[in-house]
Amino acid sequence: MAELLQFIFSGLTVGAVYALVGLGFTLIYNASDIINFAQGEFVMLGGMITVFLVAAGVPLPLAALIAVGLTTAVGLALHRLAIEPARGSSPVTLIMITIGASIFLRGIAQIIFDRRFHSLPSLFGSEPIHFGGATMLPQSLVVLAVAAIIVVLLWLFMERTLLGKAVTATAANRLAARLIGINTRRIVDFSFAISAAIGAVAGIVVTPITLTSYDVGTLLALKGFAAAMLGGIGSAPGAVVGGVLLGLIEALTAGYISSNYKDAVSFLIILIVLVAMPQGLFGRARIERV
Amino acid sequence: MTILSASQLAISFGGVRAVDGVSLAVERGEVYSIIGPNGSGKTTLFNLISGIYVPTTGTIRLAGENVTGLVPEQLARRGLSRTFQNLQIFFRMSVLENVMVGRHRHEKTGIFADLLHWPSVARQNRQTREAAMAALARVGLAEAAERPAAALPYGALKRLEIARALASEPVLLLLDEPAAGCNPVETQELDRVIRSLTNEGITVVLVEHDMRLVMNISDRVHVLASGRTLAHGTPLEVRSDPAVIEAYLGTHGSEEAARAIG
Amino acid sequence: MQRVLDSRIWPLAALAVIVVIAPLFFSSLYDYRIGALVFIFALAVVGLNLLMGFAGQVSLGHAGFLGIGAYAVAIGPTYFALPAWFSLLVGAVLSGIVAFLVGRPILKLKGHYLAVATLGFGVLVAIVLTNEADWTGGPDGMNVAHLMLFGWKVHGSDTWYWLAGATFIVGFVLAANLVDSPSGRALQAIHDSETAARMLGIDVARKKLTIFIVSAIYASVAGSYLALFDGHITPDVAGFLRSIELVAMVVLGGMGSVFGALVGAAVLVVLPQALTVFHDYEQATLGLIIMVFMIFLRRGIVPSLSAAFSGWRR
């Protein structure tokens, strides 16, 4: 029982990160139909920039703030410099651009930073908390809390603010949104910026637990993408549920079956879900009209 | 001989009965038109007959055989072909290649033969090309054969779909609004093509808004309204049916009514 | 008929000339090595292009088949004492079978869903290759014995250049044959409208599966060549990055352009080498190349160029 609880704790922590990455995918996808494979690099940048600023003597909170700011700028630049110029291209071309951006950012990080693993000090020390026979790092609680806060803030933003409603409108029907005077280009700008910021925050809070390096982005992007698909692409609650579910499945697999195959099982489950329920858990089926 | 019969066909989408208990019987070699206001279920009926949708209830028979639930490719092999209201052109291919695809059910294909380009493949390609050219010539598109399909104007694309369907040598041809977007000359041309088809024994089922064309070439007309059968019979009978005049022509605008009767 | 003959012979002749002429500009064995790599990747890309460019079905996991082919020629001779050439065939058959089993369910998916499913498949293969260390040597990989053909040991970059070049031409011819055949037309029809294709009697699911298997076999053979040529293989051959490179080569050369496969492979093999002075810059350069080409030549190099020269061409 204590063992199970232990696996659930670690599953929730990792799942929270997947959920945030999946949320980033969803935001950009809804605003622009683009699958942004550079999403994982936002997480990497958040962690790595903070690590190197702290190493240079910048206090952690300030370093984190700068890291989020810089990553947001990278997200904006990605949209303005790489996505905008290719507007109207086929989906495959756009996916390839974001993958190119992902490889590029990873390459740059490897040059500017280094190829080693790095950690950050935990916010509340590293003394494990005991609970029901299982232990949990205080930082795990930070990850969960931050993820929850982001989800709630995002939800409030979408529901309560004019800008948020404009984002929702753009997601529902781009042409109609444009016709009622919404600047959809700004909305996409905004979605890239927010996705990047969310990714950076996730990267900063999770680094004390999972460590970071220049190449953590790829697997995170794949898992986040998988989480979004699992939930049904385009559905924000779906991305969150999908992420947490994926994290739990992974932790349980690693615990009870084989830690070597934890990644394999999550991809296997994605394949099965896709084949059995092609629209994901929360997506809606479409009727093809001819 | 009845080539196509449907009894008590029904299908609903999200609680809306798009087609509700429609029965019909089409005789070999006739032109059978399905008319009705927008949203009356004409295209849905086509999608049911051509296997794109599976009916909730009811049965469909093709040349006496129960084909309910068969998928489009199985129906195609039994000689059913159709065109689409929203064009379904192969835009990456040339005009001729589009029609060559129509020959598919008559081609012997094997992945190995095709990869190795056996002499039989070359011979068959030649036959396919000739048959496709003949089909293009019938709809007056022979000159455009080598052009990319994407470069053709709308009216020509409509005829390209007909040529593609013809290339499959159908027994039963469903035409979904072939005259939509065509000018009067093109419509007259269409009239001629459809007549020539029936002369060869091809059965044509037509969904069309152009009442002049419908009344001109149809042997029988079936009127739908809100997914149900309102009336059916010869053009003359349907035209004088009070229910049709009131429900269909009345709501559809006096201009069209005048054209239809005039 | 004359026209058909021309359209068949010219690209082939041009290719043969390229293969023969290129070495005149080579100054070292290293250049032969690059040339051989270009042809090996181009072979995989020709196959993937049949799937993506003609049938319109994306695969973000094709390196999985590259991996199956590569490890077949590594494991076959090492553990089963099979000749390398036979192991290559076993790998190809195995890839075909895996493609059949995987493709049947996932080719029903469309768009992004197909993308993530194929991606998942590729990652799975890489994970298995990494974890089954008893057979594969794990992350460090394993050595691959030389290819023996009729008692002749195939080794050296120049030898492999000619072998890879010749094999690529064969792969090219087969693909070009397919494009100009009932199957090829059916595939292109599926790309534009599955509904219309089905309405003309095309068994869409079966055609997609067939071409998925064919493209898997292309990738498998290329993977075997890669392993035999390099003499050493690691799970990276099946990794996500490799899959992406293959897709990038297809899109870069031009979707639906058989000739584009060679151009796409050449650009992505040669440019990073040429632009990279230090190893550290390799990834950044690769990423930049992909972005720049996708943004400015979005239809791919070959279609963009031929459009510029002749107004319009498929």
Secondary structure layout plus pairing:
The complex is a heterotrimer of chains A (290), B (262) and C (314).
Chain A: H1 2-32, H2 39-55, H3 60-83, H4 91-112, E1 129-131, E2 134-136, H5 138-160, H6 162-172, H7 174-179, H8 184-210, H9 217-231, H10 236-256, H11 262-276
Antiparallel strand pairs in A: 1-2
Chain B: E1 2-13, E2 16-27, E3 31-35, H1 42-49, E4 57-62, E5 65-66, H2 72-77, E6 80-82, H3 95-102, H4 111-116, H5 119-138, H6 154-167, E7 172-176, H7 184-199, E8 203-207, H8 211-217, E9 220-225, E10 228-233, H9 235-240, H10 242-252, H11 254-261
Parallel strand pairs in B: 3-8, 3-9, 6-7, 7-8
Antiparallel strand pairs in B: 1-2, 1-4, 4-5, 9-10
Helix pairs in contact in B: 3-5, 3-6, 5-6, 10-11
Chain C: H1 2-21, H2 29-54, H3 63-80, H4 84-106, H5 111-131, H6 133-136, E1 142-143, E2 147-149, E3 152-154, H7 157-179, H8 182-192, H9 194-199, H10 204-230, E4 232-233, H11 240-253, H12 260-275, H13 282-296, H14 301-310
Antiparallel strand pairs in C: 1-4, 2-3
Short description:
The complex is a heterotrimer of chains A (290), B (262) and C (314). Chain A is mostly helical and 290 residues long.
Distance between the termini of chain C: 20 Å
If classified by CATH, what would the architecture of chain A be?
Orthogonal Bundle
Please indicate the percent range of residues of chain C in DSSP E strands (runs of 2 or more): under 5%
**End-to-end Cα distance of chain A:** 55 Å
How would you write the strand order of the largest sheet of chain A?
1-2
Order of helices and strands of chain A: HHHHEEHHHHHHH
Give the averaged pLDDT of chain A, no decimals.
87
The number of helical segments of chain A is 11
Structural class of chain C: mainly alpha
Helix content of chain A: over 70%
Order of helices and strands of chain C: HHHHHHEEEHHHHEHHHH
Chain-averaged pLDDT of chain C: 88
What is the count of structural domains of chain A? 1
Total helical elements of chain C: 14
Shape of chain C: globular
CATH class of chain A: Mainly Alpha
| Total number of strands of chain C | 4
Using only C-alpha atoms, the radius of gyration of chain A works out to 19 Å
